[in-house]
Design a protein that fits this description.
heterodimer; A: mainly alpha; MetI-like fold; B: alpha/beta; 4-stranded antiparallel sheet; 37% helix; globular; binds adenosine-5'-diphosphate; binds magnesium ion
Amino acid sequence: MQKSFDYRTLIPTLSAVAALLVHLLVPNSPKYTQKQVPYFTIALIIIIAVTLVIAFASLFNERLRKKYAFKSWFIATFILFLNLLNLATLKLMILQSIYFPSPDRILKVYVEEWPFLLKCLGYSLRLLATGYLIGAVLGISTGIMVGWSKKWSYWVNPLIKLVGPIPSTAWVPIALVTFPTSFQASVFLIALAVWFPTTVLTSSGISNVQNAYFEVSSTLGARTIQKIFKVALPAAMPSIFIGIFNGTSASFITLMTAEMLGVKFGIGWYINWQREMLSYANVYAGLIVIALTFSLIITLMFRIRDRVLGWQKGVIKW
Amino acid sequence: MVTQKTGFIQAQGVRKSFVQPDGQTVVALQDVQTEIQPGEFISLIGPSGCGKSTFLRLVAGLIKPDEGSFTLDGVPISGAGYERGLVFQDPTLFPWLTIYENVAFGLKIRGLYKEKKDDVKEFIKLVGLEGFEKAYPHQLSGGMAQRAALARALVNHPKVLLLDEPFGALDAFTRMNMQDELIKIWQERGTTTIMVTHDVDEAIYLSDKIFVMTPRPAKIESIIKVEIGRPRERDLPDFLKLRAKILQILNFAGKREDIQYYL
Ligand SMILES: Nc1ncnc2c1ncn2[C@@H]1O[C@H](COP(=O)(O)OP(=O)(O)O)[C@@H](O)[C@H]1O
Ligand SMILES: [Mg+2]
């Protein structure tokens, strides 16, 4: 075993203790008129407790210690940022308090409105998942047909080239009058945003598959349908994933646009609504929820890709 | 009895030409009129461009002749099929499948995997890749990948095994090992085998008959029987004599070509 204590594992805790001391000892700005809430204090105590537990556990687990020590400067700096933010808002009021609420006030939103935020998140995810799945399935299907068959490529490729690059948000006026509900219109927009990159990269992936693979598979007894699904599709998978990733970021943009334009009860809608009411603490709370959710989705997709494309390790560096 | 065995190939007046990207037509193979007996080991030898790969691809059914036809056990070859297994110089294993899955590919797509599962293990063992079942192709050396490709073709129990310079990319030592393994497998299974090679020694070492081919016109110049008992030694007088003879044919064809150029 290597050295069992690494001083770096205590840095995040120290940063949190510093933040707590500042919060408790520096008096609030006299201009600060809102009711004092204890949430930042509680949050910092929780952070101190958790970081201490991790630091303690890392005494006995080398992998955890290495990982945590490596991340420690980043975590400590992030806590320092919260500390400075707290100073600039609650303590000194350097920033305009309407637009830049103190950490306390943002935490208060979560404590008081979490059921509603959760419901908004649910609405957003339902819309995103519906549109995304439709777009991805259609995109992969169109991509296979266009990449495989000359006839499909002849008729559909020009359409893809012409229609595809239009940002899906430009379809909003048409979508809103074409579909009976704004939910359906948004599903259409998100599906379209995912469909385009998925189609393009699936078809280019499939048409770039080495002919030798098809020849080998036919001398092994493969029929056309098997060449498509057992050879072309897996061989094109790396490219398909790039398409899906591009589609994912496009779908996030479209989701937010759609919600700010009129689909009710999503997180995007919540943010827009709170902004109009000048409740910026709620706006930030919503933004943080979105950031966490989207980055969770992306992380999940990377995991799936690594699983599916495990065979690529050592062939291609990502 | 020979008549009961399968893997009998006949070629009747086969001719194949290609239109090159620049619009010119190149005759890749012509006047092919020959028979290959069941269980025979045939080598195709000759300089590049003399139509060796074209010959194999026609038998594999990957391309169709302009004139004439190939038949297998009396049935015209009209497309690719598992009963004619093909191995290229580049192993072209499917990189997204493990070695085991690559070898099992033929059985799986033919819906025979469940009943013939044991064959997969058997052929992996036969080519000496036990322990590498879970490896991916990129983790294998060239020789190992080529063995896997061989096992993948053999698992279908093809009537004809087609090998296009299968050992061309291997170092001399590995190549000699692979030649011995191939002979062993061929003797065990008695599969009709047609192999393209650049290497005169390899052709003599392995084959019952050698088809010596020449470019311009791309055709089979002569068929040479190798009447040397097995196992063969590479430095016996008969071996060396045969080699001189083949080189002479190839050399003469080369000269004739030069003369044609000067005319
Ligand atoms: N698919 C193809 N398209 C155009 N020309 C080809 C094609 N395949 C082979 N040829 C031509 O046919 C001739 C014979 O090729 P090939 O059978 O590959 O020769 P070898 O394998 O003996 O080197 C060459 O001149 C080659 O350029
Ligand atoms: Mg060739």
